[in-house]
């Protein structure tokens, strides 16, 4: 089936079978590799993208369900103030260790701060709960979200 996808502010015409995960279209068809494959069952968060501004797991979001939605990937998040603040905080606190999960972590953090610009530590932990980091940089991730919140407030 042929679909028109609005991805990162541009419309792309793609060919995909019904039931194809959005993740594979983003990575294989559109060659945007910032969004990672982690588990394939929406448990780790590595594949997180924004669908109409809301974080979703692209490994379990099917292509036929997103034709009329605005999809945003890690490649352009620095173009909005929340995304820029999150990426700046991530770099400032040297959050990344191996880096594999970080695009999903960042996309979820942007989702959190877009909904709640001043989250408590408990709210951060609750919101980020579905994002796994094998390197266990959770304390730095939390600190970066707090720092990004402060940057947005300034």
UniProtKB/TrEMBL annotation:
The keyword Iron applies. Its EC number is 1.3.99.16. PROSITE patterns: 2FE2S_FER_1, 2FE2S_FER_2. Residues 1-77 form the 2Fe-2S ferredoxin-type domain. Pfam families: Fer2, Fer2_2. Keywords: 2Fe-2S, Iron, Iron-sulfur, Metal-binding, Oxidoreductase. It comes from the Bacteria. Signal peptide: none annotated. SUPFAM superfamilies: 2Fe-2S ferredoxin-like (SSF54292), CO dehydrogenase ISP C-domain like (SSF47741). InterPro entries: 2Fe-2S-bd, 2Fe-2S-bd_dom_sf, 2Fe-2S_ferredoxin-like_sf, 2Fe-2S_ferredoxin-type, 2Fe2S_fd_BS, Beta-grasp_dom_sf, Diverse_Oxidoreductases. One of its GO terms (molecular function) is metal ion binding. This is Isoquinoline 1-oxidoreductase subunit alpha. It comes from Falsiruegeria litorea R37. The lineage of its organism: Bacteria, Pseudomonadati, Pseudomonadota, Alphaproteobacteria, Rhodobacterales. The gene is iorA_2.
């Amino acid at each position: 089936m042929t679909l028109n996808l609005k991805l990162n502010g541009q419309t792309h015409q793609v060919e995909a079978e019904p039931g194809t995960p959005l993740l594979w279209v983003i990575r294989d068809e559109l060659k945007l590799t910032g969004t990672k494959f982690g588990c394939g069952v929406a448990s780790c968060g590595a594949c997180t993208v924004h669908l109409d501004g809301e974080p979703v797991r692209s490994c379990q979001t099917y292509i036929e369900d997103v034709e009329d939605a605005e999809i945003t990937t890690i490649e352009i998040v620095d173009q909005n103030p929340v995304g820029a603040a999150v990426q700046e905080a991530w770099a400032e606190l040297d959050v990344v260790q191996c880096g594999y999960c970080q695009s999903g972590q960042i996309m979820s953090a942007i989702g959190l701060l877009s909904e709640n610009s001043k989250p408590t530590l408990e709210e951060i932990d609750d919101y980020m709960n579905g994002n796994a980091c094998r390197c266990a940089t959770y304390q730095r991730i939390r600190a970066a979200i707090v720092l990004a919140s402060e940057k947005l407030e300034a």
